Amino acid sequence: MYADTPDSPPRRDKGKAPALPTLPTEHTPLLSDSVTSSRTRSIADNDEERLIAPTRQSSFRSILLSVFCVSLSLCVLLFVLLALLAYSYGSGASREAPDTLIRRSLVLRGPDRVDVLNISYTDGIWLRVEGRVGVDAGAALGVNPSLDDGVFKDIWKSVGRWGVERVENITVNLSTVSIHSEHGHLADISFPPSTLPLTVNPPQDFSWLTPMSVPVLFKPTNDSKLLARFIRDTWRDGVVNVRAVVDEAVVSVLHGRFHLTREDVSSTVRIALPPLPPLDQVPVTLLSFLIQSTPTNLILSGNATIENPVPPHLNVRATLPTLPFLVSLPANDSSVPVANVTTAPMTLSYPNITMSISGTVLPIRSTGQAALSRFLSVYLQAEPNPILISSPFLPDLQFPALFPAPIPKPQVLRNVTIRNMFLKYHPDGNTMLASGTVYGRAVLPKGIQVGLDVKRLFPDVLVFDGEVPSEEEEEEEEEEEDSGEQGIPHLPHVPHPRLPHISDLPRIPIPSLPLPTVIPSLPSILPKPHVPLPVFPIGRKHRPSRAHSPPPKPSLPDPLPPRAFAHIRPEDWLPTICTPVAGDGKEGTTVEVEAKIVDVPLEVLPGRDKEFRSFVGKVIFSNKGALAGVQGTAAVGVHILGLPVGEGEGSGEMELVGLPFAGRVMVGKGSAF
Asked: Where is the composition biased (Low complexity) (predicted)?
């Protein structure tokens, strides 16, 4: 028996003796069966493991391959499903024309503000345009919800909306946009790439639009006639109808990871404009102006307001830099340039736009003097004048406009009278002639501070028995005549009594008287009476010139004014004496004008013989003479200091016609007949 060694572990099975091992003897074989069997089992196990290991490896590989194939199939299937889903969303949009797709999905409002940054003769006009923009991707892809959608279609649309929300926005990069009308190419527009937000199922109002500010380069065509026609048609019809053409459009999504390129994209743009007045009827109010003479030129400056034609609910704001313009006057089928003006920087506001203008008058050619004379005459008659405005950027494009009339109406000719007036019969005994000195004062409207020299005068005068009747008196007399014709029966005509003619006297025998034996002889040459001429004040005297034809003869007023009995109109221009005088500071240049009339026919008005005889009777039988009123229009030939005239284009003398005047004349007994 073996004793327990100290290193042997304690027994765990208490109460039961363990089996003792058999001790080897000389008959015991060197290799026992147990050892042989264990070795045999070990060898067999190794062989079995060698056979099972490849089987396990192949099975693992099969599992990996199966997992990979299944995953790949799922990925392919998922990709196909996503592709089919994307195609289902995009197929409808891809089949539609770009024009229709843009009109349905792109929403623009504005412009809310337009700032002109720079203007270049070669590059074009740089603008900064502010507006609101949005892309309704739900309308473009057809994923916006609808009450008629079923369950599966609603799920399909929900997935589409979810995908659009993940994309968030797109970046659009366009090549140069060409704008065309039905008549041809109008302009090219260029702007940088723009990021547009995507929206699905937007509200009915425009609160979902995103404000944007984009720099734009606008380069109009050089065909000014085409542009003028387009602007006139657009302004008249109230509709902007153009076609925008883009050679290439690139749309990027997911921060540039995917790109979609379309070529030859075109879209029709039709924008309805608010009601606009005609271009030549836009209300313009001249607040102030100043015209000053220099030795070589006329300087212009002024302030005006223009009614903003854009309705205020559109809330369009814009700023304009300093802009040059050319002002021309219409003349027959052409135009005459008269001034270069420049506007100060201004802001478009409501309800009126205020602008400041400065410039100079251009040299006037002989062909343009008539147009300028007509312009000045119409202005002094307090009537609006048609003008043409163009810009050096578009020299062939002219905009019609109206130059406002002065308010109140200027009274240019004042204190008109005829001094030393006397009447006499023509040698034929049928015509009465008038002579005297026409005196008056010419006062230009406030703001016209120019050197003025009146060289000639052509009056057209109506003579009244007494003061010139006022407008109220004329209206009252017309009403009396109308009521008299309606309420009082016509009386028989009673001829006006006249002095008996010698042939109407009875034949009475006249006793013969003895003739004198000596008849005194009369001298053959009678001395001419000395008639003193009026003394003219110091001034500039001008002689008449046959180079200027008289102005057209106006027709007599119909009906004739009450108490008017005669008409005086000379046959030619009258030379004048012009003397500058100091004004009151509240008006423009002031000068005194005198002109002498000699033997001008005094024509009795039709049906006014009675008034004429009554006036002559007052002159003959009154100790103080008779008061006569004068009223009419006058034409004057003036020279304006500093008005530039083209070389060899004449003196630059202007004719102002149709200037109204009124005054009074005292005709005494000694000055009549």
From this structure: 18-31
Q: DSSP letter for 135, please.
A: E
Where do runs of H (alpha helix) occur along 365-454? 366-380
3-state helix, strand, coil in the chain (%, to 5): 25, 40, 35
DSSP state, residue 499: P
Residue 148 pairs in a beta bridge with none
Q: What is the pLDDT of residues 538-588, one digit of tens each?
A: 344 555 555 678 888 888 888 899 999 999 999 999 999 999 998 777 889
Specify the residue for token string 């606008």.
218
Cis-peptide, bond into residue 559, ω within 30° of zero = yes
Give residues with Cβ within 8 angstroms of 288, minimum separation 6: 302, 303, 447
d(CA 343, CA 346): 8
Helix (H) or strand (E) holding 298: strand 298-307
pLDDT digits (tens, 9 = 90+) for 302-341: 998 888 877 776 677 778 888 899 999 988 878 889 999 9
Taking the C-alpha atoms of residue 411 and residue 659, their distance in angstroms, rounded to an integer, is 8
> What does the alpha-carbon distance between residue 572 and residue 551 come to, in Å, rounded to a whole number?
9
- For the chain, the maximum distance between any two Cα atoms, rounded to a whole number of angstroms, is 234
CA 500, 505, 511, 515: dihedral to nearest 10 degrees? 40
CA–CA dist 403, 376 (Å, integer)? 11
The whole-angstrom separation of Cα 381 and Cα 377 is 6
Q: How far apart are CA 518 and CA 502, in angstroms?
A: 30
Question: Taking a C-beta distance cutoff of 8 angstroms, is the pair 662, 460 a contact?
Answer: no
Strand stretches in 332-431, DSSP E: 334-343, 346-348, 352-361, 385-391, 394-403, 413-425
DSSP secondary-structure letter at 201?
A: S
Residue type, 248: E
Backbone angles phi, psi at 6, to 5 degrees: -65, -25
3-state SS class at 518:
coil
β-strand pairing of 448-449 with 284-293? parallel
Spatial distance between the Cα atoms of 433 and 568, rounded to a whole number of angstroms: 9
Neighbours of 518 (CB within 10 A): 5
Cβ-based neighbour number of residue 221 at 10 Å: 17
According to DSSP, the residues that pair with 328 across neighbouring strands are: 337, 388
DSSP state of 56: H
- Amino acid occupying residue 196: L
For 622-672, strand residue ranges (E) read 626-640, 654-667
Cis-peptide, bond into residue 111, ω within 30° of zero: yes
Here the tokens at position 531 are: 């008639």
Contact predicate 110/129, CB 8 Å: yes
Secondary structure (3-state) at 403: strand
Q: Is the peptide bond before 311 cis (omega within 30 degrees of 0)?
A: no
Ranges under pLDDT 50 in the chain: 1-17, 20, 35, 485-540, 672-673
- Single pTM value for the model: 0.64
Collapsed DSSP state (helix, strand, coil) of residue 599: strand
Give the span between the Cα atoms of 632 and 611, in whole angstroms: 18
Q: What angle do CA 17, 22, 25 make, to 5 degrees?
A: 155
Q: How do strand 385-391 and strand 394-403 relate by DSSP bridges?
A: antiparallel
Q: What are phi and psi of 428, to 5 degrees?
A: -75, -10
Q: Which residues on neighbouring strands pair with residue 187, listed in sequence order?
A: 179, 220
The per-residue b/e assignment along 14-51, b for 16 or more CB within 10 angstroms, e otherwise, is eeeeeeeeeeeeeeeeeeeeeeeeeeeeeeeeeeeeee
